[in-house]
Structure formats: structure tokens, C-alpha cells
Description:
CATH class of the domain at 63-246: Mainly Beta
Structural class: alpha/beta
Low-confidence stretches: 1-11, 251-292
Distance between the termini: 117 Å
Strand order of the largest sheet: 1-4-7-10-15-18-21
Amino acid sequence: xxxxxxxxxxxxxxxxxxxxxxxxxxxxxxxxxxxxxxxxxxxxxxxxxxxxxxxxxxxxxxxxxxxxxxxxxxxxxxxxxxxxxxxxxxxxxxxxxxxxxxxxxxxxxxxxxxxxxxxxxxxxxxxxxxxxxxxxxxxxxxxxxxxxxxxxxxxxxxxxxxxxxxxxxxxxxxxxxxxxxxxxxxxxxxxxxxxxxxxxxxxxxxxxxxxxxxxxxxxxxxxxxxxxxxxxxxxxxxxxxxxxxxxxxxxxxxxxxxxxxxxxxxxxxxxxxxxxxxxxxxxxxxxxxxxxxxxxxxxxxxxx
Length: 304
């Protein structure tokens, strides 16, 4: 009884057993979880990684679009044996896009006709992809007028093909609001476009053409040729009577290098020599009685 009446309040349950602090309880729970996780972290991570990868593989498998998929019905044509991998890029206005048989569209590939979903197009199809075509991951095929990709064409990743480009004719108007320029694009059967190739409006790429990685195609490329660079230029071409040969004038030849060295002409070299003679005048050219100037610190000494 005396203890209950003391100023310290000993024996009072309300003071001897205060309610737990939520912050301290949470910190203790986190600490306990970390201690527990430290024991199973190695095998737990392996298990989690395996489970996540297996789940993602199943998502990609069942997320792919085939000829019998409901989304395939949106396309103007979706050939037998063709596949559009998961996850897709931006795909819209499929009604004006046709895909041939046994073609594969890689993951993250964007296929579009027009600028916005629901836009009515003037041509049908706008994007025509042939049979046995392979489009690499992350590529963009953006059609507005006409893009035709022949059979057996393959592309590396991140290829960009478009038939529309911004115009800049009016210097007083922002480029983004000027009427764009449209021109059809065609890529011949059997061609190969390396990683990062850009094909601009109006380009016509022939049959069995190899376009090197990173090239920017701005014009026509003939059949059975190899093109590289930005803008792309033909460096090799196949001819029936000669086979594969380098295209004259397309590479840096010996004459080109000679021309570059000839930039320093005799007059230029004489001018350079005159500079030296003006600074280091020979003693025989100085008038009698003249003494050479004293050497200044920090200046190079003249060699005799």
C-alpha cells in the first residue's frame, strides 16, 4: 500500500508497463528479418532469380501473337507461321499492316500506320512485310504512305524505317509544325540491314543488298551491293563477269592520299622555310660588324 502511494508511482501498471513504441517495434522487426534473411540469402536469391526468369519466359511465350491470336485478326493480313514476339512496341492501325508467312517480328518492335490510332489512311496497305522476314528487336517501322519489305529480308536490332520526314522549307516556322514530306520506301528481297540502320523516305534498296551497321540510307542502292556509312554509299558490287569487286571512287585510294599530301604545296613549304630563315638568319647574310642578338631566356637557341 505504501508503494502504491509513493510519488514515483511504483506498483502502478500504467507507469511500469508503458505501451510499445511503433517505431521501435518496426525497427526490431526489420532487424529480425535481416538476421533471418542473412542465413538464406545465397540460395534464396538463386531461387528467386530462377522463379522470376521462368515466369518471364512463360509470359513471353503466352504473350506472343500468332496467326490464331485474337490480336492477329486486327491486321490486314497475318500469314501462317508468323510470330510477333512479346513484349511488343507501339503497334496501332494494324488494319493497314500486312505480314506474310513465316515471318518473325522481334520484341519491342514498333509497327504503325499513320500518326495516331484510328487514323484513316489513303493507301492499303501502308506497311507490307513479306514472307520469311525477320525484324530485329527494338526496331521501328513507321509508315504513312507506303513501306514495302520484300521476302527473306532480315534486319538487326534497332533499325528505323520510315516513309515520312520533317520539312524545313520555311525558315520562319518551327520544323515540327511544317507539313512533313512523304515518299514511298522499298527494300528488295533477300537484303540484310545491320544493327542501327536508318532508312529514310524515298529510298529504294535493291535485292540481296547488305547495309552495314549504323548506315543512313538516303537514296537508291542497286541489287547485289554492299553499302556503309552516313549517308550510305556503295563500296562493293557483284557483277556476273567479275564477281564481287570494290566500287571505284568509293574508297580512299592512293591518289586520294597523294592529293591530301599535296595540300602542302611548294609555296606553302617555302613560306614555312622563310619563317625559319627570318628567325634564324645565317651569319653569312648579316652585314659586317653586326653581332648576333644575345640569347633571351626561354627562347630556343639557334643551331649552327
